[in-house]
Amino acid sequence: MDVGVFGATGYSGRELVRLLAAHPEAKVRFTTGSGHGHLAHEAGLEREAGAYFLALPHEVAASFAARLQRARPAAVVVDLSGALRLPTAAAYRAWYGHEHPAPDLLGRAPYGLPEIYRDRIRGARLISNPGCYATSVLLPLLPLLRERLVEDDVVVDAKSGATGAGRTLREDLLFCELADNLSAYAPGRTHRHVGEMEAVLEDRVGRAVPLTFCPHLLPVKRGILSAIYVKTGAAPGELAGALRAFYAGSPFVRVMEGGPPRLSEVVGTNDCRISVHAGAPGRAVVFSALDNLVKGAAGQAIQNLNLALGWPEGAGLPGGEGP
Amino acid sequence: MDVGVFGATGYSGRELVRLLAAHPEAKVRFTTGSGHGHLAHEAGLEREAGAYFLALPHEVAASFAARLQRARPAAVVVDLSGALRLPTAAAYRAWYGHEHPAPDLLGRAPYGLPEIYRDRIRGARLISNPGCYATSVLLPLLPLLRERLVEDDVVVDAKSGATGAGRTLREDLLFCELADNLSAYAPGRTHRHVGEMEAVLEDRVGRAVPLTFCPHLLPVKRGILSAIYVKTGAAPGELAGALRAFYAGSPFVRVMEGGPPRLSEVVGTNDCRISVHAGAPGRAVVFSALDNLVKGAAGQAIQNLNLALGWPEGAGLPGGEGP
Amino acid sequence: MDVGVFGATGYSGRELVRLLAAHPEAKVRFTTGSGHGHLAHEAGLEREAGAYFLALPHEVAASFAARLQRARPAAVVVDLSGALRLPTAAAYRAWYGHEHPAPDLLGRAPYGLPEIYRDRIRGARLISNPGCYATSVLLPLLPLLRERLVEDDVVVDAKSGATGAGRTLREDLLFCELADNLSAYAPGRTHRHVGEMEAVLEDRVGRAVPLTFCPHLLPVKRGILSAIYVKTGAAPGELAGALRAFYAGSPFVRVMEGGPPRLSEVVGTNDCRISVHAGAPGRAVVFSALDNLVKGAAGQAIQNLNLALGWPEGAGLPGGEGP
Amino acid sequence: MDVGVFGATGYSGRELVRLLAAHPEAKVRFTTGSGHGHLAHEAGLEREAGAYFLALPHEVAASFAARLQRARPAAVVVDLSGALRLPTAAAYRAWYGHEHPAPDLLGRAPYGLPEIYRDRIRGARLISNPGCYATSVLLPLLPLLRERLVEDDVVVDAKSGATGAGRTLREDLLFCELADNLSAYAPGRTHRHVGEMEAVLEDRVGRAVPLTFCPHLLPVKRGILSAIYVKTGAAPGELAGALRAFYAGSPFVRVMEGGPPRLSEVVGTNDCRISVHAGAPGRAVVFSALDNLVKGAAGQAIQNLNLALGWPEGAGLPGGEGP
């Protein structure tokens, strides 16, 4: 099947092209890139394909999704931006600070976290690919909240490689500013991914769970390591067992024994590795590690495409097997 | 005054020598180093000096401290190891896994966190320099607990540069293992610094406060950034105000406005920078940043020497002024 | 075909296992690793396979090669160490400082630089895989010397990532020593790879060409960039054209237009990218970039296996196509 | 004495402010910075001071130098840009690609390489601070050429940290592009510093010496390591001895025994460390290491100020003593 990649010069788009080169069913037929200016993206709308990946800024992704859906209703569109992740126009306005450009699309695109919404993604023609931080937090946390194994008082401390900020000419992303450095940003409850995490939790857990979430910018290129601090009466082994059971049919989510997962174990793969450890009495810490460009973006987008089209869920994706 | 540095080839010892070169009162008269083998350290015991810094493994530091005290009772000994940080032999056994080699020294050396124990350090002849993580956590946390501005349910997520692990031939400290990587270690409540943090909190707050503490190894050389998650009914500004008042006479502890402090702001200085931010309702996060080799080791050791001898507290130390 | 990898815990051995996972014909049947001590390597000698890769220290590789040849004369043995790269026992003694442990093997194993010795490698049962620096220098330099396009007065300035030094517990390879640093080592004409480069040049060019060669250790994990400074009456385009013609049938050697190749263009591939630029009058500089673990070690070893067994030369190898 | 720093937000300007804080005679009275826009620089022209440092783009530095000289003829102006480094308007046009904005200044500002032009710098009121690469090459090379110890056929392979490229929003300077990477640029004889190096050599050696010069961009923040390949009949020890004699009265230039100098030995100091090693017969390689922001920019600018005003040459400068 021919596929098109909009925004193939950014880090996620480039990773999509790299991963799709090894896909047994899909073949990249065209790409658009900022090197050619905005018009290049427009030209992509004229190209026929069976699937389209949108690795575009969220401000433009929604209208492209709408236009592609109108022009080619049978094609699968996977949007990697944040444009379609929130359930309502009001939530979008609250977290993104402006009106949604295509509000009628909201609620129509399943949230593409395959291990949680597999049924909704199967057969879908428009899929909203989750945020990288959101993926790293929701996978370990959602089952524990859903089964009431942990309390609703959750703290997340997340650390991400710099590709997560995109290929943007920002001074804090210069080598001489970021090397030898570490910074926290959007502390507390202000990062946009908090919005989509809380919306998904409310949808699947059935109640509002306010998160405290602090992301950090690491001097590495790839990878997210999240530490999720929970209150619980359960032992670490019980929590790990529940997660292992929940993800029994999901090869890319792997609950590990031993020490916390390191970035180097997951970089380049579509895996999310999880471990659970004891804290002070009544507390546990759950670690999760993934590659922000693979399971946190391009790999998950391909996993979603695979599900939408009925291909094997892991087709063309590195990882998924042990140890 | 002549001073001697035991263990001057490790990262802390080297930093001591570097900082002391700019000290107006102290002059390094001799150093001992692993380059010359264990005997070189012994030879240092024969050298006369007004002050001795012990940047040695904790296993040997205690006996060296005892022998120096006997041989030169008027000299100041600052021990940078963990040998004398815990109040009792039982606590030492619990956290270090073996019997204390000189238990009669325990309780005699004030814990050298100048902003907390200034009165005990003044005039002392044996001082136990705090751990780097412990310094980064106790400075922001202790006043808030003491004034009951936050609850006793505290989570700390700390990230340290690799000099914190010492100049040790360990495979995980090789460039090719650590670069592009991030790992958590000793998760939950197992790191030795938890012992000294809880002991100091009990001493100054008056009650046991069990911590959940997860340290991480960063691919940078210097610096610690700790995120301290607290439950509180107070607004961030109120917490920041309380900290600012508490440290009004302590120029090296600086409560900042704006975003969380970054490592690059403190590396090379004896400063600890703190900021407070809102979390989910009822929660706040307190960040603290310092240089693990300066305020977390060599700089704080010099600050302690200054206090012990009645010199200006900041003599020879970079930092201490804004912004 | 079943293959065995001796020394699979080192960086080259690990890369072999990683690359072979995608090979259409070969399957890793067993590995030996330092984690299990020296005996584990011995145990590998009992395992039956169609091909063996030796990613072992040169001191032990020669005897393993000899024993494997005796025990399984039909199998292909590719030695990644320096044990068999020099033509004579005298040359080995001069460059390695001790007697060769199996001198009768010398001269029997073709030097596995496929683009230069393809005919000798086809059908061979024992192949000596070249050094990483030697590969990066010989590919661009040998054709120019052979066709007398450049004079015999050659200067090479090479820079390598730290995996080139192996997974060795050496202080200069610690993160805190290597990060933010750059060092030259073995300057002038003392690095062992000079011996194999000069031997190959003498063999294929027909005269002794003494090299001035200075390697550097970079704070990166992978990649070699060599700058080769030559005296020439030819224009850069003429030199590039000669190289392009020489490597017309060799997809992994690619002569580029534009600026000098960067490490990031070749890391992860089996490519060697070359460019030629003018220097002062009568001088030119030839750059070559490759991944020291792929074209400089594991990838080239697989390319040699492919040739030895008559498989497509690029089977299982990333790279080889433009741009 | 009050001094002003124009352009204090760039890396060189920031380093000037940092170093001047420890200067016994000079005190920074004002700075101008890009944060306030171009007008902020203009406002600096109104400020009275005894010395001015221009850390501005070369396009604007020349006119600022001219205006400061007219307005305050007794003040010392040190220009850190390339505006005044070349001797003639024709040379400037050739290397910078546009007409010089203040050609009457050319030839009036001594080239501020103190170890070579100390006499001209003493008492000067306008000084042109050398380029960082030029400093690293001229110091080791000039004496050897001048005393005809090496031939005029010279190859330089230089590697610089990324602060050398300035605090510029360029894509190749982003962390994700530069980390794990190495690139050569401006290869052969095209970098602007070649112009000033050849001009100084012609002036002091008495003949034109065309250089082959290839700079590289390292994934480190600070430091330059240059390898200078020369043809010579002299032994390395003879070359080192000649350099040692030439720089006997220059404490910041240090000819070392042992291995080539590493960046970590010079970063943070005003030192240039040099070593000499044998190459192939008739060849030697001379290494030089310095901190591009100190001896290559801000430190050398202060050294020039010291000389101009008759202060001790090393006042306020780190380095200058052994080992």
Question: Any overview of this molecule?
Answer:
Four copies of one chain form a homotetramer. Chain A is an alpha/beta fold and 323 residues long. The first copy, chain A, folds into two domains: 143 residues, NAD(P)-binding Rossmann-like Domain (Rossmann fold), CATH 3.40.50.720; 161 residues, 2-Layer Sandwich (Dihydrodipicolinate Reductase, domain 2), CATH 3.30.360. Chain A is 34% helix and 20% strand. Chain A has eleven helices and twelve strands. In chain A, the strands form two sheets. A seven-stranded mixed β-sheet of chain A has the order 7-8-6-9-12-11-10. In chain A, strands 2-1-3-4-5 form a five-stranded parallel β-sheet, sandwiched between helices. In chain A, strand 3, helix 3 and strand 4 form a beta-alpha-beta unit. Chain A is globular, with a radius of gyration of 19 Å. The first copy, chain A, starts with a strand and ends in a 14-residue tail after the last helix. At the C-D interface, strand 6, strand 7, strand 8, strand 9 and strand 12 of C face strand 6, strand 7, strand 8, strand 9 and strand 12 of D.
